[in-house]
Structure formats: C-alpha cells, structure tokens
Amino acid sequence: MPKLIDKKIKGMSNSPASTVGKPGAVRRLSTDNPPDIHMTRNRSKSESSNASSPAANLDAASTPDKKKSTMNACPCIGSSSGKDWKLKCLQCGQIWHAGCANLKGTRILSETTVNQVFSGWLCPWCYKCPFPRHGGHTSSSLETSLVEKVLSTSVLQRISDTVTAAMQNITPSVDITSLEAKMNNLQSEIKEFHEGYKAQPPPVPQNIPLISLIPELGEPEGAVITSSEKPFEVYKVDYLTVEEEEKLDDFVGYHKSNGSFFDERGHMVLPFGEPYRYTGSGSASSAPEPIPEELKVIIDKVTKDLSLKHKPNSVLINYFPAGNAQTMTHLAMHSDDETCIVADSKIITLSLWASRKIVFHPKHQRSNLQPSELVAEDNSLYVMTRSSQNWFKHGVPQPNPGEDVDERISITLRCINNKKTRSILLMGDSNTKEVKFGEGSGTVGASYPGRRVKANMIKDIDPEKCVGYQNVFLHCGTNDLRNEYVTGKDYIHKLVGTLQSKLCVIEQLCPNTNVFVVPVLPTRNHTMNENVMYFNKLVDVMLNKRFPNISFSGVYGFLDSKGLLDSRLMRSNSSDDFIHLGKRGIAKYVAMMKSCVYRKVKSIEHQKTKQESAQVVDPPGGS
Ligand SMILES: O=C(O)CCC(=O)C(=O)O
Ligand SMILES: [Fe+2]
Questions:
Q1: CATH code for residues 234-416
Q2: Does ligand 1 have an atom closer than 6 angstroms to the CB of 434?
Q3: pLDDT tens-digit profile of 200-247?
C-alpha cells in the first residue's frame, strides 16, 4: 500500500510532523525509505545542504538543467524553492508539486491537515472524473477550443509545407500531388469536424417578399468592357540562324517520320516538358517527354531575346499538313486561357516551313476590341500575353477555296504551373487584409498560390484583376452595410445590383474561373446584422437565379449559437471593434477558403472524368 510521508522545511510549519491514525497511510520521512515520500515541502538550497535525509536531497535536486522528468520529481522539473508541498499519487506514485497539480491554495495548510486530506490523492494523470459533463457546460467549449488549437490549420499547413519541401528536396521528380491531396483532404475533414457541432445557418430575416426582391435580372446596363490589350505584342521575322533552323528541321523531321505526333482534328501535336492540359488535349493523358536539348536551345534564346520574366517550361509542337480547302489543316478558334499558364507570362509561337494566316477575334460581344490577322512567315515568331487570352481568341483557319498551303510547323512555348488549379485571388475588405499568401507558417501555403487585392466596397471590385486565377473570392459588403450608410431596403437592393454587374463582367472575362462570393459576416451589432441578413438573402436569390455556379456559403462556422459573429474569432484588443476577425478567425477563414477550393476543384475533376468516360462509350457521331 502506498504510504504518505510528510516533510516540511524548518520554520514553515508549527505543527509537529506526525503519523496519522490510518494504518500505513502516513509516516515520517526517514532515510530508509526515500522512494516512499508522498508529501513533502521543498527545501530551500541553504537548508538542503544541512539536510541528512534523501528527501532533502530530493528537494534540493531541482536544478532544472540537470534534472530529467522522473517519478521522484514533479513533472515541471523545477523547484518551488521549498515553498510548496510535494504530493505522491496513490495510484502511480508520481511526485507532484501541489501547485503543479492544481492545488495552489494548499500552501497555507499544516502538514497534518495535508496528510489527512491527501491520503488517497490521485494525480492529474490518474484521476478520472466519474460524472459525465452536460453538453452545454463551459468546460466543453473550452476543451473544444483546445482541440481546435491543437488541430489548427496553421499546424497542419506547416506539416503539409514541410512534407512537401522535404519531398521536393529528396527527389525533385517525385509526384507529391497525391500526398498533398491527402493532406488537403485531411484538412477538409477537420474543418467539417469543426463545423459539425457548430454549424447553424444565421437567422434568416422573416417577411421578405422574395418574389419582388430583384425586379429584373437581365444583363445590367453598362456592362460593355474595355481593354487596351493587343492580340499579339511582338512579331519578328528571320528569327533563327540558318544553323539553328537546320537543327530544328532535323529534330522535327525525325519525330514526324517516327510517328511521334498525336492527331488533334485538323492538325497534329507533340508536347514536351510540363504537361499542358487544354480542352481536347488528347495527348495529355500520358506525361510528355522532358524537353530535349534541341528545344532547350530555342527556349534559352527566346528567354534572353524577349527578356522573359517566366522561362517557358512547356513546349507544344503543332504540325499542319499541306493541302487545300478540302484537307483537314487548321486549328479552331480558341484562347490559351487555362489557369495552369502563369498569369503574367507570355506565349511564344515560332513558325517554320511555310507561311500561314493566323486570325484573332475579340472574345466578348460588347468590348471595344477589333478582329485582326497576322501572316506568320516561315522562320518568324509572334508573342501573345497570357492576359490577352481573356480578350481574344485565335486560330489557324482552313484554307479558302482555291487556296493551297504548304505543310507548316509551329513551336509554341508556355510557362505552366499545374498547381495553379488551386490559385486564389482574394478580393476583399479590411477583414481579409491579414490573409497572407505564400509558403510557410502563417500563410495560405504553397499549394494555394495567390494574392489578396483590396476592395473595400462592392463598387471597388475590379473584374480585370481576376484574370488568370482559377479561384476568385469576393469578400465585400461589410463596409457598404455600415449603419451610417444604409438608408433603407432600396439601398440594399442597389448594392446587390452592383454586385450582379461586377459578376457579369467577371463571368465574361474569366468564364473558367470558380467564383466564390463570401456572405457578409454577421457582426456583433444587432441593427447591422438585420441589414447583413437581408443583403445575404438577396444575394443568395440573385446568385441562384443568374449565376447558379457561383458558390455562396462557408461562413456559418463563424457564428455562435445566437447567429452572431463568434467573439472568440474576433480581434480581442478592441472592445468596440465588432467586425474584424482576429488571428484565430483568420486561420479559420483561410481553412474555409482552401476547403471551398479543394472541393470545387475535386468536383470539377470528377465531372470531367465522368464526361470523358461518357465520351468513350458514345458511338461515333452520337450526340
Ligand atoms: O500555330 C499557331 O500559330 C497557333 C498555335 C496555337 O494557337 C496553339 O498551339 O495554341
Ligand atoms: Fe493557341
């Protein structure tokens, strides 16, 4: 049976150290039984030097740098300098300072009392509460917040980034996509777990005549979009030296006769380097060969000549057969607007073997831009910007009746980043200011590259800034809905109308971008919340009617049981700030964004796979 021993430094207690009546429960410390110490008060250094008992040594052996966590020393490994009782757990025998075991008030008790009271004491590691806690008890939420903290996104993000970095360092060619996907999946699951017990929709305002909310949802007037983009920005003739041209001819000729090209309706293609996936890119199902020396030379030359910011890492060679109006020799009108092409990069096309007409058409009906043409000569080069792809389509038309064309090669160079499927543009008000993109702790993380652009109010949303991102989050409205601005329901209707116009333009400029409108977060101000809920409801109706693909959700987890912004997620340093998210709120916000993107990207991939497999089983010519 464990024994209880008292030991007190001189002068700390008036009561004589005594044996308590319980058999074997309490006894004086003696040199014979040092491991049996159950309760003792630390000695100060000077006293311990005079002490003769091993217990005294135990007290003194508190020099933190020499001590390890043992059964005979409190898990804090420190010293209370003789001021605190030491207790021994009845079950495991571990020694604890009373203060470290959450028994701070016991210092004033006499040793006899302590011996009596703690004769059957179980330490924090051994004690299990026999009574279940009722659900709404404060301690549940405190524990929840602890769990949240432990599982917090930043920790996961750090793990994710570290694993990613380590993998890249060890074997640069390792495909870490699946590992990242697993980490992301894990993150989504944790987020769902977080929201599972808290999620509840904010109180929807009653008595809103929904039918008459937004009178007409036609295209808003004034949605003509203007731009100063050019279809191509550079055209150079006689670009390669005779020697360079000959080498390239040999290289392409070899692959042509070898049957390396893939058929792509009207022309043939041969990719190298980073995979470039586009609609109808049949060749993309297998990973392309690395870029060969013959093409690396061209990339280096172009990068230097054009002072490219992003060196091309992906090559697509197009082969157009010789022929006439009846021969299949063309490339349909299209834009190279895939988000995997780096937003501020250039697309370079080198033409060889024959001249061919290239046509450019403005993409948007109501834009200020005009169609144009370019005859790309043999050994010429033209350069388009990635951003011009959002304004123009280009193509190589079929020869006109009576026209004959010679066979032609075009070598197209692009800078691809396949992680860009998760690229994010966050356009928002001051609540998004603390969201940092990039790598490492405290950022959104390397797997979600992007940037934040300021838009304090809905009128400040700039659709052109969305170009080149796969995912756009619009986070505005809080400032528009400040009590001092809202004059009535009409004002809120107009706001929704402005948002609708912005979305129309974004839709035209970036048809392939996933747009997320973030509902305005309820604040802790009740009057403002009424307007916020009214606005959110209107936006919801507007999006459902006009933009069914735009997501409008993801912030319910920010609310407390009353539907107000959870105070634990807010900035704590200012009591009159009832709007802004604090560190924890931002971490949660970032997790929400990533989870939205992850799910969207997954569901699009899933839909694509379904469509592709449906195409495979369709009989030729089937609709
Ligand atoms: O052959 C050309 O000039 C155009 C090629 C092109 O547009 C493409 O590969 O995307
Ligand atoms: Fe193209």
A1: 2.60.120.590
A2: no
A3: 444 444 443 333 344 444 444 545 667 788 999 999 999 999 999 999
With tokens 């700039």, the residue in question is 462
Q: Of the given ranges (34-38, 158-162, 526-530), which has the lowest mean pLDDT?
A: 34-38
Ligand 1 pocket, 410 CB below 6 A? yes
Amino acid at 330: H
- Going along 438-559, which residue ranges are E strands? 450-454, 471-475, 514-517
H/E stretch holding 582 reads none
Least confident of 54-58, 499-503, 594-598: 54-58
554, 516 Cβ separation under 8 angstroms: yes
CA distances from 340 to 55, 345, 394, 417 (A): 70, 11, 18, 5
CA distance 536 to 619: 46
Do 564 and 160 contact (CB within 8 A), yes or no? no
- Cα angle 77, 79, 85 (rounded to 5 degrees) comes to 105
| Amino acid at residue number 304 | K
pLDDT score recorded for residue 612: 63
Residue spans of beta strands (DSSP E) within 464-529: 471-475, 514-517
In 3D space, the residue among 470, 455, 549 whose CA is nearest the CA of residue 502 turns out to be: 455
CATH 3.40.50.1110 occupies which residues in the chain? 181-220+421-610
Strands (E), 261-370: 262-263, 268-273, 314-320, 331-334, 346-352, 356-362
DSSP string, 451-477: EEEE-SSGGG--GGGGTT-SEEEEE--
318 ligand 1 Cβ < 6 A: yes
Residue 289 token pair: 């060969």
User: Cα(269) to centroid of ligand 1, in Å?
Assistant: 10
CB of 536 shorter than 6 A to ligand 1: no
pLDDT at 514: 92
d(CA 378, CA 354): 5
Atom of ligand 1 nearest to the CA of 410: 1
Q: Which ligand is nearest to the CA of 264?
A: 1
Domain spanning 181-220+421-610: CATH 3.40.50.1110: yes
Task: Respond yes or no on whether ipTM tops 0.85.
Answer: yes
Please name which of 420, 421, 435 lies closest in space to residue 518, comparing C-alpha atoms. Answer: 435
Q: Which two tokens stand for residue 584?
A: 């924890």
DSSP label of 305: H
**Kindly report the CA angle at 134 between 128 and 139, in degrees rounded to 5?**
70
**What's the pTM value of the predicted model, to 2 decimals?**
0.52
pLDDT category at 316 given cuts 50, 70, 90 is: very high
What pLDDT score was predicted for residue 283?
A: 55
> Contact at 8 Å (CB) between 318 and 409?
yes
Angle between helices 153-170 and 583-617 (to 10 degrees): 60
